[in-house]
Amino acid sequence: MAIDQKVQDAHRDDRKSARIVGAGVHDGVNGMICVAEFAAARQVLRSNGLRQAGFRAELLERFTGRKNAPVLFQDGEAHQKQRSATARFFAPKVVGTRYRALMEELSERLVERFRSAGNAELDAMSLEMAVAVAAEIVGLTESKQAGMARRLNRFFDASDPQRGWLSAITAFAASQYKMLAFYLRDVRPAIRGRRKTRRQDVISHLLNQGYSDREILTECLTYGAAGMATTREFIVMAAWHLFENAELKHRFIASDEATQVALLEEILRLEPIVGALYRRAEHELTIEGKGGPIRVQAGALLKVDVRAANTDPAAAGACPFRADADRDLRATRSSDSLMSFGDGPHRCPGAAVALQETAIFLDRLLRVPNVRLMRPPTVKWNPLISSYELRGAVIAT
Ligand code: HEM
Protein backbone atom coordinates (compact mmCIF):
# COMPACT_ATOMS: atom_id res chain seq x y z
CA MET A 1 0.00 0.00 0.00
CA ALA A 2 1.36 3.45 -0.91
CA ILE A 3 2.35 5.67 2.05
CA ASP A 4 -0.20 8.34 1.00
CA GLN A 5 -2.97 5.75 1.10
CA LYS A 6 -1.91 4.62 4.59
CA VAL A 7 -1.98 8.20 5.88
CA GLN A 8 -5.41 8.74 4.32
CA ASP A 9 -6.77 5.55 5.89
CA ALA A 10 -5.42 6.48 9.31
CA HIS A 11 -7.49 9.68 9.19
CA ARG A 12 -10.55 8.28 7.47
CA ASP A 13 -13.71 8.69 9.48
CA ASP A 14 -16.60 6.55 8.24
CA ARG A 15 -18.99 7.46 11.06
CA LYS A 16 -22.24 8.89 9.76
CA SER A 17 -23.36 9.97 13.22
CA ALA A 18 -20.11 11.84 14.02
CA ARG A 19 -21.33 15.18 12.72
CA ILE A 20 -24.34 15.40 15.02
CA VAL A 21 -22.28 14.39 18.07
CA GLY A 22 -19.62 16.91 17.15
CA ALA A 23 -22.23 19.59 16.59
CA GLY A 24 -22.27 20.74 20.18
CA VAL A 25 -24.45 18.00 21.63
CA HIS A 26 -23.56 17.71 25.30
CA ASP A 27 -25.19 15.65 27.99
CA GLY A 28 -22.58 16.21 30.66
CA VAL A 29 -23.28 17.05 34.29
CA ASN A 30 -20.85 19.02 36.43
CA GLY A 31 -18.59 16.85 38.56
CA MET A 32 -19.32 13.72 36.57
CA ILE A 33 -16.42 11.35 35.90
CA CYS A 34 -16.18 10.59 32.21
CA VAL A 35 -14.59 7.28 31.25
CA ALA A 36 -13.42 7.12 27.64
CA GLU A 37 -10.82 4.33 27.57
CA PHE A 38 -12.10 0.87 26.68
CA ALA A 39 -10.31 -1.00 29.50
CA ALA A 40 -11.45 1.50 32.15
CA ALA A 41 -15.01 1.47 30.78
CA ARG A 42 -15.10 -2.29 31.12
CA GLN A 43 -13.89 -2.07 34.74
CA VAL A 44 -16.68 0.39 35.54
CA LEU A 45 -19.42 -1.71 33.97
CA ARG A 46 -18.17 -4.86 35.68
CA SER A 47 -17.68 -3.30 39.15
CA ASN A 48 -19.85 -4.17 42.11
CA GLY A 49 -21.48 -1.40 44.05
CA LEU A 50 -22.51 0.72 41.08
CA ARG A 51 -26.13 1.49 40.36
CA GLN A 52 -27.87 2.12 37.10
CA ALA A 53 -28.07 5.90 36.65
CA GLY A 54 -28.90 6.14 32.95
CA PHE A 55 -32.22 6.39 31.10
CA ARG A 56 -33.59 8.64 33.87
CA ALA A 57 -33.34 5.73 36.34
CA GLU A 58 -33.02 8.00 39.35
CA LEU A 59 -36.07 10.02 38.35
CA LEU A 60 -38.10 6.86 37.74
CA GLU A 61 -37.09 5.45 41.13
CA ARG A 62 -38.60 8.46 42.89
CA PHE A 63 -41.98 7.58 41.38
CA THR A 64 -41.97 3.81 41.38
CA GLY A 65 -39.41 2.64 43.94
CA ARG A 66 -37.03 -0.27 43.35
CA LYS A 67 -39.32 -3.20 44.05
CA ASN A 68 -40.42 -4.82 40.80
CA ALA A 69 -38.70 -2.10 38.79
CA PRO A 70 -37.92 -2.93 35.16
CA VAL A 71 -34.82 -5.13 34.84
CA LEU A 72 -32.78 -2.26 33.37
CA PHE A 73 -33.27 -0.31 36.58
CA GLN A 74 -32.57 -3.08 39.07
CA ASP A 75 -29.17 -3.82 40.56
CA GLY A 76 -27.44 -6.42 42.72
CA GLU A 77 -29.07 -9.69 43.69
CA ALA A 78 -32.61 -8.81 42.57
CA HIS A 79 -31.27 -7.87 39.14
CA GLN A 80 -29.22 -11.05 38.88
CA LYS A 81 -32.28 -13.18 39.72
CA GLN A 82 -34.40 -11.43 37.14
CA ARG A 83 -31.72 -11.85 34.47
CA SER A 84 -31.37 -15.57 35.13
CA ALA A 85 -35.13 -16.04 35.12
CA THR A 86 -35.54 -14.30 31.74
CA ALA A 87 -32.38 -15.76 30.13
CA ARG A 88 -34.46 -18.56 28.63
CA PHE A 89 -36.20 -16.08 26.30
CA PHE A 90 -32.83 -15.08 24.82
CA ALA A 91 -31.03 -18.44 24.76
CA PRO A 92 -29.21 -19.04 21.43
CA LYS A 93 -31.34 -22.10 20.70
CA VAL A 94 -34.58 -20.17 21.20
CA VAL A 95 -33.33 -17.21 19.13
CA GLY A 96 -32.10 -19.56 16.37
CA THR A 97 -35.36 -21.52 16.14
CA ARG A 98 -38.48 -19.85 17.47
CA TYR A 99 -37.63 -16.24 16.61
CA ARG A 100 -35.69 -17.09 13.47
CA ALA A 101 -38.79 -18.36 11.71
CA LEU A 102 -40.58 -15.10 12.51
CA MET A 103 -37.60 -13.00 11.35
CA GLU A 104 -37.40 -14.82 8.02
CA GLU A 105 -41.11 -14.75 7.36
CA LEU A 106 -41.37 -11.06 8.24
CA SER A 107 -38.28 -10.06 6.21
CA GLU A 108 -39.65 -11.83 3.16
CA ARG A 109 -43.04 -10.17 3.56
CA LEU A 110 -41.53 -6.69 3.97
CA VAL A 111 -39.15 -7.12 1.05
CA GLU A 112 -41.91 -8.48 -1.19
CA ARG A 113 -44.10 -5.48 -0.37
CA PHE A 114 -41.19 -3.18 -1.25
CA ARG A 115 -40.53 -5.02 -4.53
CA SER A 116 -44.08 -4.65 -5.71
CA ALA A 117 -44.29 -0.98 -4.66
CA GLY A 118 -40.89 -0.11 -6.17
CA ASN A 119 -39.96 2.11 -3.23
CA ALA A 120 -40.31 2.25 0.55
CA GLU A 121 -39.38 4.20 3.66
CA LEU A 122 -36.58 2.23 5.25
CA ASP A 123 -37.24 3.33 8.82
CA ALA A 124 -40.89 2.27 8.55
CA MET A 125 -39.71 -1.19 7.48
CA SER A 126 -37.12 -1.38 10.25
CA LEU A 127 -39.67 -0.31 12.86
CA GLU A 128 -42.09 -3.00 11.75
CA MET A 129 -39.32 -5.60 11.94
CA ALA A 130 -38.00 -4.53 15.35
CA VAL A 131 -41.47 -4.20 16.91
CA ALA A 132 -42.67 -7.59 15.68
CA VAL A 133 -39.65 -9.49 17.02
CA ALA A 134 -39.45 -7.77 20.42
CA ALA A 135 -43.27 -8.00 20.79
CA GLU A 136 -43.05 -11.78 20.42
CA ILE A 137 -40.38 -12.02 23.13
CA VAL A 138 -42.26 -9.74 25.51
CA GLY A 139 -45.70 -11.20 24.74
CA LEU A 140 -47.34 -8.09 23.27
CA THR A 141 -49.23 -10.11 20.73
CA GLU A 142 -52.91 -9.33 21.26
CA SER A 143 -53.08 -6.05 19.33
CA LYS A 144 -52.43 -5.08 15.71
CA GLN A 145 -48.70 -4.56 15.30
CA ALA A 146 -48.91 -1.62 12.89
CA GLY A 147 -50.93 0.29 15.51
CA MET A 148 -48.54 -0.66 18.31
CA ALA A 149 -45.55 0.43 16.19
CA ARG A 150 -47.26 3.82 15.66
CA ARG A 151 -48.00 4.22 19.39
CA LEU A 152 -44.43 3.33 20.38
CA ASN A 153 -43.03 5.53 17.65
CA ARG A 154 -44.93 8.52 19.03
CA PHE A 155 -43.68 7.67 22.48
CA PHE A 156 -39.99 7.42 21.68
CA ASP A 157 -39.52 9.94 18.90
CA ALA A 158 -37.01 12.59 19.99
CA SER A 159 -39.01 15.75 20.49
CA ASP A 160 -37.49 19.18 20.16
CA PRO A 161 -35.95 20.44 23.38
CA GLN A 162 -38.64 21.92 25.58
CA ARG A 163 -38.59 25.60 26.15
CA GLY A 164 -40.39 26.95 29.19
CA TRP A 165 -42.71 25.42 31.76
CA LEU A 166 -45.81 25.48 29.58
CA SER A 167 -44.30 23.26 26.90
CA ALA A 168 -42.87 21.00 29.63
CA ILE A 169 -46.36 20.53 31.14
CA THR A 170 -47.88 19.95 27.70
CA ALA A 171 -45.18 17.38 26.92
CA PHE A 172 -45.78 15.64 30.27
CA ALA A 173 -49.56 15.47 29.65
CA ALA A 174 -48.94 14.18 26.13
CA SER A 175 -46.59 11.45 27.38
CA GLN A 176 -49.19 10.36 29.99
CA TYR A 177 -51.78 10.13 27.23
CA LYS A 178 -49.42 8.12 25.00
CA MET A 179 -48.63 5.77 27.88
CA LEU A 180 -52.35 5.25 28.56
CA ALA A 181 -53.00 4.49 24.89
CA PHE A 182 -50.18 1.92 24.85
CA TYR A 183 -51.52 0.36 28.06
CA LEU A 184 -55.15 0.15 26.95
CA ARG A 185 -54.54 -1.00 23.39
CA ASP A 186 -51.48 -3.24 23.73
CA VAL A 187 -50.45 -4.12 27.28
CA ARG A 188 -53.81 -4.73 28.99
CA PRO A 189 -55.12 -7.15 26.32
CA ALA A 190 -51.80 -9.05 26.49
CA ILE A 191 -52.03 -9.30 30.29
CA ARG A 192 -55.66 -10.45 30.13
CA GLY A 193 -54.79 -13.17 27.62
CA ARG A 194 -51.92 -14.41 29.77
CA ARG A 195 -53.95 -14.35 32.99
CA LYS A 196 -56.07 -17.03 31.32
CA THR A 197 -53.22 -18.98 29.71
CA ARG A 198 -49.54 -18.40 30.42
CA ARG A 199 -47.09 -18.57 27.51
CA GLN A 200 -43.32 -18.57 26.98
CA ASP A 201 -42.82 -14.81 27.20
CA VAL A 202 -41.78 -11.99 29.52
CA ILE A 203 -45.32 -10.91 30.48
CA SER A 204 -46.26 -14.46 31.56
CA HIS A 205 -43.07 -14.59 33.63
CA LEU A 206 -43.85 -11.26 35.30
CA LEU A 207 -47.40 -12.41 36.12
CA ASN A 208 -45.92 -15.51 37.78
CA GLN A 209 -43.78 -13.18 39.87
CA GLY A 210 -46.83 -11.22 41.03
CA TYR A 211 -46.12 -7.99 39.12
CA SER A 212 -49.00 -5.52 38.96
CA ASP A 213 -50.39 -4.20 35.66
CA ARG A 214 -48.57 -0.94 36.20
CA GLU A 215 -45.25 -2.70 36.80
CA ILE A 216 -45.76 -4.80 33.68
CA LEU A 217 -46.52 -1.64 31.71
CA THR A 218 -43.19 -0.06 32.76
CA GLU A 219 -41.30 -3.24 31.87
CA CYS A 220 -43.01 -3.28 28.46
CA LEU A 221 -41.99 0.34 27.89
CA THR A 222 -38.43 -0.57 28.86
CA TYR A 223 -38.39 -3.36 26.28
CA GLY A 224 -39.97 -0.94 23.82
CA ALA A 225 -37.06 1.45 24.30
CA ALA A 226 -34.30 -1.11 24.87
CA GLY A 227 -35.32 -3.58 22.19
CA MET A 228 -37.46 -1.86 19.59
CA ALA A 229 -36.23 1.73 19.41
CA THR A 230 -32.57 0.62 19.34
CA THR A 231 -32.89 -2.13 16.74
CA ARG A 232 -34.90 -0.01 14.34
CA GLU A 233 -32.13 2.61 14.29
CA PHE A 234 -29.47 -0.02 13.88
CA ILE A 235 -31.13 -1.62 10.85
CA VAL A 236 -31.23 1.76 9.08
CA MET A 237 -27.66 2.67 10.06
CA ALA A 238 -26.30 -0.68 8.89
CA ALA A 239 -28.24 -0.44 5.62
CA TRP A 240 -26.94 3.10 5.05
CA HIS A 241 -23.32 1.93 5.41
CA LEU A 242 -23.87 -1.08 3.18
CA PHE A 243 -25.66 0.91 0.46
CA GLU A 244 -22.88 3.48 0.34
CA ASN A 245 -19.85 1.22 0.73
CA ALA A 246 -19.77 -1.08 -2.31
CA GLU A 247 -16.94 -3.20 -0.94
CA LEU A 248 -18.69 -3.77 2.38
CA LYS A 249 -21.99 -4.55 0.62
CA HIS A 250 -20.31 -7.06 -1.64
CA ARG A 251 -18.64 -8.76 1.35
CA PHE A 252 -21.96 -8.83 3.20
CA ILE A 253 -23.91 -10.47 0.40
CA ALA A 254 -21.15 -12.99 -0.34
CA SER A 255 -20.73 -14.06 3.31
CA ASP A 256 -22.37 -16.63 5.56
CA GLU A 257 -24.49 -15.38 8.44
CA ALA A 258 -21.69 -15.52 11.04
CA THR A 259 -19.52 -13.21 8.91
CA GLN A 260 -22.50 -10.97 8.16
CA VAL A 261 -23.02 -10.59 11.91
CA ALA A 262 -19.32 -9.72 12.37
CA LEU A 263 -19.63 -7.01 9.67
CA LEU A 264 -22.74 -5.65 11.35
CA GLU A 265 -20.92 -5.54 14.68
CA GLU A 266 -18.10 -3.52 13.09
CA ILE A 267 -20.71 -0.99 11.92
CA LEU A 268 -22.27 -0.98 15.39
CA ARG A 269 -18.86 -0.42 16.99
CA LEU A 270 -18.47 2.73 14.90
CA GLU A 271 -22.06 3.88 15.36
CA PRO A 272 -23.23 2.80 18.83
CA ILE A 273 -26.95 3.37 19.28
CA VAL A 274 -26.55 3.92 23.02
CA GLY A 275 -23.71 6.45 23.09
CA ALA A 276 -23.27 6.69 26.85
CA LEU A 277 -24.00 4.58 29.94
CA TYR A 278 -24.29 6.04 33.42
CA ARG A 279 -23.65 4.58 36.86
CA ARG A 280 -23.77 5.98 40.42
CA ALA A 281 -21.06 4.74 42.83
CA GLU A 282 -22.52 3.39 46.07
CA HIS A 283 -19.12 3.29 47.72
CA GLU A 284 -15.58 4.43 46.99
CA LEU A 285 -13.70 2.60 44.25
CA THR A 286 -10.59 2.88 42.11
CA ILE A 287 -10.46 2.41 38.34
CA GLU A 288 -7.12 1.75 36.67
CA GLY A 289 -6.71 4.17 33.77
CA LYS A 290 -3.85 4.54 31.29
CA GLY A 291 -2.73 7.71 33.05
CA GLY A 292 -2.90 6.11 36.53
CA PRO A 293 -5.65 5.24 39.03
CA ILE A 294 -8.94 7.16 38.93
CA ARG A 295 -10.42 7.49 42.43
CA VAL A 296 -14.19 7.48 42.55
CA GLN A 297 -15.92 8.84 45.66
CA ALA A 298 -19.12 7.26 47.00
CA GLY A 299 -22.07 9.04 45.39
CA ALA A 300 -20.14 10.07 42.27
CA LEU A 301 -21.79 9.86 38.86
CA LEU A 302 -19.84 8.05 36.13
CA LYS A 303 -20.38 8.34 32.42
CA VAL A 304 -19.05 5.55 30.22
CA ASP A 305 -18.50 7.18 26.86
CA VAL A 306 -19.33 4.25 24.58
CA ARG A 307 -18.45 6.14 21.41
CA ALA A 308 -14.98 6.96 22.73
CA ALA A 309 -14.36 3.50 24.25
CA ASN A 310 -15.28 1.83 20.94
CA THR A 311 -12.73 3.90 19.03
CA ASP A 312 -9.97 3.67 21.64
CA PRO A 313 -6.98 2.49 19.53
CA ALA A 314 -5.86 0.30 22.46
CA ALA A 315 -8.95 -1.85 21.83
CA ALA A 316 -10.03 -1.13 18.25
CA GLY A 317 -6.51 -1.07 16.78
CA ALA A 318 -5.31 1.10 13.92
CA CYS A 319 -7.60 3.50 12.02
CA PRO A 320 -10.37 3.16 14.63
CA PHE A 321 -12.83 5.43 12.76
CA ARG A 322 -12.80 3.27 9.66
CA ALA A 323 -15.36 0.56 8.89
CA ASP A 324 -12.95 -2.31 8.40
CA ALA A 325 -14.37 -5.69 7.42
CA ASP A 326 -11.12 -7.38 8.45
CA ARG A 327 -10.73 -5.79 11.88
CA ASP A 328 -9.64 -8.42 14.38
CA LEU A 329 -10.70 -7.72 17.96
CA ARG A 330 -10.05 -11.14 19.46
CA ALA A 331 -7.33 -9.75 21.73
CA THR A 332 -9.93 -7.64 23.59
CA ARG A 333 -11.93 -10.77 24.49
CA SER A 334 -14.98 -8.75 23.72
CA SER A 335 -17.58 -8.97 21.00
CA ASP A 336 -16.81 -7.25 17.68
CA SER A 337 -19.05 -4.32 18.58
CA LEU A 338 -16.97 -3.69 21.76
CA MET A 339 -19.15 -1.68 24.20
CA SER A 340 -22.20 -1.16 21.96
CA PHE A 341 -24.28 -3.72 23.86
CA GLY A 342 -22.81 -2.64 27.21
CA ASP A 343 -20.82 -4.93 29.48
CA GLY A 344 -21.09 -6.55 32.91
CA PRO A 345 -24.37 -7.48 34.57
CA HIS A 346 -26.54 -5.14 32.47
CA ARG A 347 -25.08 -6.25 29.12
CA CYS A 348 -27.87 -6.40 26.58
CA PRO A 349 -29.66 -9.76 26.66
CA GLY A 350 -31.14 -9.03 23.21
CA ALA A 351 -27.80 -8.62 21.37
CA ALA A 352 -28.06 -11.89 19.44
CA VAL A 353 -31.70 -11.17 18.60
CA ALA A 354 -30.90 -7.71 17.21
CA LEU A 355 -27.93 -8.92 15.17
CA GLN A 356 -29.72 -11.93 13.77
CA GLU A 357 -32.83 -10.04 12.71
CA THR A 358 -30.73 -7.29 11.10
CA ALA A 359 -28.63 -9.85 9.21
CA ILE A 360 -31.69 -11.75 7.97
CA PHE A 361 -33.58 -8.63 6.91
CA LEU A 362 -30.64 -6.91 5.17
CA ASP A 363 -29.61 -10.11 3.43
CA ARG A 364 -33.07 -10.34 1.85
CA LEU A 365 -33.20 -6.62 1.06
CA LEU A 366 -29.76 -6.26 -0.52
CA ARG A 367 -30.42 -9.17 -2.86
CA VAL A 368 -33.31 -7.33 -4.56
CA PRO A 369 -32.09 -6.53 -8.10
CA ASN A 370 -31.13 -2.85 -8.52
CA VAL A 371 -32.07 -1.90 -4.97
CA ARG A 372 -30.59 1.49 -4.08
CA LEU A 373 -30.77 4.15 -1.42
CA MET A 374 -32.71 6.90 -3.15
CA ARG A 375 -32.65 9.30 -0.19
CA PRO A 376 -30.31 8.95 2.82
CA PRO A 377 -31.85 9.52 6.26
CA THR A 378 -31.71 12.74 8.20
CA VAL A 379 -29.88 12.40 11.52
CA LYS A 380 -31.43 13.70 14.75
CA TRP A 381 -30.19 13.42 18.32
CA ASN A 382 -32.03 11.69 21.19
CA PRO A 383 -30.53 12.90 24.48
CA LEU A 384 -32.26 10.24 26.62
CA ILE A 385 -30.00 7.50 25.26
CA SER A 386 -27.27 9.74 23.77
CA SER A 387 -28.21 8.41 20.41
CA TYR A 388 -28.95 9.31 16.86
CA GLU A 389 -32.29 8.85 15.15
CA LEU A 390 -32.45 8.18 11.43
CA ARG A 391 -35.60 9.23 9.58
CA GLY A 392 -36.82 9.62 6.04
CA ALA A 393 -34.49 7.20 4.21
CA VAL A 394 -36.09 6.02 0.98
CA ILE A 395 -35.06 2.94 -0.95
CA ALA A 396 -36.08 2.15 -4.51
CA THR A 397 -35.53 -0.35 -7.30
C1 HEM B 1 -29.01 -2.96 18.12
C2 HEM B 1 -29.90 -3.15 19.06
C3 HEM B 1 -29.63 -3.00 20.52
C4 HEM B 1 -28.70 -2.23 21.15
C5 HEM B 1 -27.65 -1.33 20.54
C6 HEM B 1 -28.88 -2.45 22.59
C7 HEM B 1 -28.09 -1.88 23.55
C8 HEM B 1 -28.21 -2.12 24.89
C9 HEM B 1 -27.31 -1.64 25.91
C10 HEM B 1 -26.08 -0.77 25.66
C11 HEM B 1 -27.75 -2.10 27.11
C12 HEM B 1 -27.08 -1.90 28.48
C13 HEM B 1 -27.61 -0.74 29.28
C14 HEM B 1 -26.77 -0.44 30.50
O1 HEM B 1 -25.77 -1.08 30.75
O2 HEM B 1 -27.13 0.48 31.23
C15 HEM B 1 -28.96 -2.85 26.86
C16 HEM B 1 -29.74 -3.45 27.84
C17 HEM B 1 -30.92 -4.11 27.57
N1 HEM B 1 -31.41 -4.48 26.33
FE1 HEM B 1 -30.58 -4.04 24.55
N2 HEM B 1 -29.93 -3.32 22.77
C18 HEM B 1 -30.41 -3.70 21.54
C19 HEM B 1 -31.43 -4.60 21.29
C20 HEM B 1 -32.19 -5.22 22.24
C21 HEM B 1 -33.27 -6.17 21.99
C22 HEM B 1 -33.68 -6.68 20.61
C23 HEM B 1 -33.83 -6.47 23.20
C24 HEM B 1 -34.99 -7.39 23.53
C25 HEM B 1 -35.90 -7.77 22.74
C26 HEM B 1 -33.09 -5.74 24.21
C27 HEM B 1 -33.37 -5.77 25.55
C28 HEM B 1 -32.58 -5.18 26.52
C29 HEM B 1 -32.88 -5.25 27.94
C30 HEM B 1 -34.09 -5.93 28.58
C31 HEM B 1 -31.84 -4.57 28.59
C32 HEM B 1 -31.69 -4.38 30.08
C33 HEM B 1 -30.76 -5.44 30.62
C34 HEM B 1 -30.36 -5.22 32.07
O3 HEM B 1 -30.38 -4.08 32.54
O4 HEM B 1 -30.00 -6.20 32.71
N3 HEM B 1 -32.12 -5.01 23.60
N4 HEM B 1 -29.21 -2.88 25.49
Instruction: Choose one word for the global shape.
Output: globular
CATH architectural grouping: Orthogonal Bundle
Largest sheet, in brief, is: 4 strands, mixed
Spell out the helices and strands N to C. Answer: HHEHEHHHEHHHHHHHEEEEHHHEEEE
CATH class designation: Mainly Alpha
- Distance linking N and C termini: 36 Å
Alpha carbon gyration radius: 21 Å
Say which CATH homologous superfamily is assigned: Cytochrome P450
Counted up, domains total: 1
Q: How many separate helices?
A: 16
Structural class, please?
alpha+beta
Ions and ligands: protoporphyrin IX containing FE
Gist?
With 397 residues, the protein is an alpha+beta fold. It contains 16 helices and eleven strands. It has helices at residues 3-11, 18-22, 38-46, 57-64, 76-86, 92-117, 122-138, 145-156, 164-196, 202-208, 213-244, 246-254, 257-270, 306-310, 313-316, 351-366, and strands at 33-35, 50-52, 119-121, 276-281, 285-289, 292-296, 301-305, 372-375, 378-382, 387-391, 394-396.
Describe the structure.
55% of the residues lie in helices and 12% in strands. It is of the alpha+beta class. It has one domain: Cytochrome P450 (Cytochrome p450, Orthogonal Bundle), CATH 1.10.630.10. It has a 4-stranded mixed beta sheet. The chain has a 3-stranded antiparallel beta sheet with strand order 3-11-8. A two-stranded antiparallel sheet has the order 5-6. It binds protoporphyrin IX containing FE (HEM).
